[in-house]
Amino acid sequence: MSNLYDARRYLTRFDVQRLPSLFTDVLVIGSGVAGLRAAIEAARYGSVLLITKGRVDESNTAWAQGGVAVVMSPEDSFETHVADTLTVGCGLCDPAAVNRIVREGPERVRELIDWGGIFDRRGEQLLLGLEGGHSAPRIVHALGDATGREIVNTLIRVARVTERLRIFEDCFAIDLVDVGGRCCGAVTYHRHFGHQIFWAGHTILATGGCGQVYRETTNPEVATGDGHALAYRAGVPLRDMEMVQFHPTTLYVAGATRALISEAVRGEGAYLVDRQGRRFMPEYHPDAELAPRDVVSRAILKEMAVQGATCMYLDVRHLNTEKFRKRFPMISRLCEEFDIDIATQCIPVRPAAHYMIGGVVVDEMTRTSMPGLLACGEAASSGVHGANRLASNSLLEGLVFGAIAGRVAGEAAASEPVTAPGRVRSDIEDSVRTALDIADVRNSLRSLMWRNVGIERCGARLTETAEIINFWGRYVMDKLFDDRAGWETQNMLTLAYLITQASLRREESRGVHYRSDFPDTNPDLTGRHLILQRTPEGLRAEFAG
Predict the structure, then answer these.
(1) Cα-trace Rg, the chain
(2) Is 367 part of the annotated catalytic residue set?
(3) Which one of the listed residues 293, 350, 506, 515 is annotated catalytic?
């Protein structure tokens, strides 16, 4: 029996000659920092449509608390920021890509300020915070711990008044359409208008991450890995899909949705302690609470296992309470909602899936291997993050490479008229297999991934997970859905399949990828990226670089 994750090209049945068609020079899929910045830039050159499956302000960016890592102080330097990023990346970063975002970062932040973005200051000077892995304070933040929301609001304001840029909300990108190997746009579904096809000279994937694949996550409900799955079905290579970063500290209250407790809290001096108040991080790393995220996450997980605990704790009681509330107003309000008095009580925390480091392979100009298709932000693998993302480099990457993607797509599309190619159709037979309950599959998948493909992995559990995911695929990937929940579940299953397959193949521990049966780093795999690609023969997986 063929593997439907590899056999399935399209998720829906369509004939482009029978669908309503819209034409644009550039189509942007996604409304986080990368997508919005790309759309604004592309509109300088031609017409742009930005589509997002929910509201335009629903994205991982809007939830980002920490800030933007950027060199804005004479006591700091580009060289040290680059060095910090490469160190945390554990031998898988692309130095050229790192150098680019670091050096172009200040210009992108100043641009946001010119557009009305308000960042925290002391007098005329920007306040700069310190986070784990950084050798100097360089984290620019807004409203204490609402940096992502301020950036999104600023970009949305600019986008809404930008000529030749239209935003379509509640519009789900089901699949990329290619003609002769070239991406020509996407088949979409709008909750009011039904199926449509958007023809575009160039398409930019900026769909964000896939945290919803895991039961414990900091990501909003929209983060279901749609862009990664779109690209994979279209035969576009993906890279380092085993590299999923887990944030060490999310608020743990049984029965409540996990909420991020920013790394900046530890940067301000908070301690990680157990229920007896013992500070344990100095036992695991010289930088203690400011160690790289993978180190902190595994330390918390180990302490929980040894002590039979459901969480560890962040202790901020020794900090100035009023100053803390002013610096972290959102976190303070969150604690108050759960009756946690930060002046007298510790904050219960545990790790959760946070950021997808792997993604669609792009070159230095954000182009994928498919002509007409670009990718940026969390959906892409730009080479910036390597095997472990340095704190607050994600918003920076989205701003820098979003602008690059928009410029590259805009310039190219401006010289190429958009036309509807010949007939493209997808004929999919109705499934004769039993239909599974989608909500049940989704919940079971998330629990399975958290248990077996989470912070610690081993070959036996990964093999078992692959078998279970393949079983679900037989009964879900063969179905034709007509709603967002069905397509998202198919995309989540595809992402789980890819993450698990990649985790099986990388038989070493590096950065965020930890194999208990291969606990050491293999020097032969330094600089070697794991490439996954859908081919007519099935999944192709190989190390390259």
Answers:
(1) 22
(2) no
(3) 293
